[in-house]
Design a protein that fits this description.
The longest helix has 17 residues. The radius of gyration is 17 Å and the shape is globular. It has a single domain, classed as Vaccinia Virus protein VP39 (Rossmann fold, 3-Layer(aba) Sandwich). The chain is of the alpha/beta class and 233 residues long.
Length: 233
């Protein structure tokens, strides 16, 4: 374990900035951007040098950038690529050159409702409300693709948040975990502390206290494993 003492050891991950440790990874202004050291912890724990890491909702490219900088192979893709090294593809139909049963790790930082605009593509899953059962049906399709591409014992990391909107709370994380557990074995749940959100302002803090609701302070990071001995999709 020498040389790994900088890995997170608890289930609460709190990073000071989006790019902490990887200054060129991703874009801190991108909606819902993944913290670079979250990606680093997952890559270093669950993929060895030369292993394949897949990110099907690549956003501004944080996960692929971090994986490559750590000597792993990476295939990032999304509906509206922000960089030339991100393929254009739908997370519900993972493209060639991703072979079946070969990836060591898949990391998915998905929309959790229809609260943010990620791009102009009408297929974007961020256009479906988490209160709509279709949201979980479509996420099930994404999970099935991850299952197909991951090797036996491969790991899926999925980042998502709950929603509180217009006085209504939706336990998105728990509902999604139930979907993922249909295919994968849960390994652990991490609390990923949120920083620099638009709601992190004195005005929103005042509203939260005045109208008796809570601002979203964290996301879930679900860590799951494709059952050992399982092959194919």
């Amino acid at each position: 374990m020498l040389g790994r003492t900088d890995l997170e050891a608890s289930t609460c991950w709190d990073f000071p900035s989006q790019s902490d440790g990887h200054l060129k990874a991703g874009d801190a202004t991108f909606n819902g951007v993944t913290p670079a050291r979250c990606a680093e912890n997952l890559v270093r724990r669950y993929a060895r040098p030369g292993d394949l890491v897949v990110d099907p909702m690549a956003g501004s490219g944080t996960i692929g950038h971090v994986a490559r900088s750590l000597g792993r192979r990476a295939i990032p893709f999304g509906l509206t690529p922000k960089r030339s090294d991100i393929l254009r593809a739908d997370a519900r139909a993972w493209p060639w050159p991703i072979p079946d049963g070969k990836a060591a790790l898949a990391v998915i930082d998905s929309p959790y409702s229809d609260n943010l605009a990620y791009g102009g593509d009408s297929r974007c899953l961020g256009r479906i409300s988490c209160r709509d059962s279709r949201f979980y049906d479509e996420m099930r399709r994404v999970a099935a693709e991850a299952f197909r591409v991951l090797r036996s014992g491969g790991v899926l990391g999925w980042i998502i948040s709950d929603e509180y909107r217009r006085g209504f709370y939706t336990a998105v994380g728990f509902r999604l975990l139930n979907v993922l557990a249909e295919l994968f074995e849960p390994l652990d749940t991490v609390v990923l502390v949120r920083h620099h959100d638009r709601s992190a302002s004195p005005m929103w803090e005042h509203r939260a206290r005045r109208f008796n609701f809570y601002l979203r302070g964290f996301k879930y990071l679900f860590i799951l494993q494709k059952p050992v001995g399982t092959s194919g999709g």
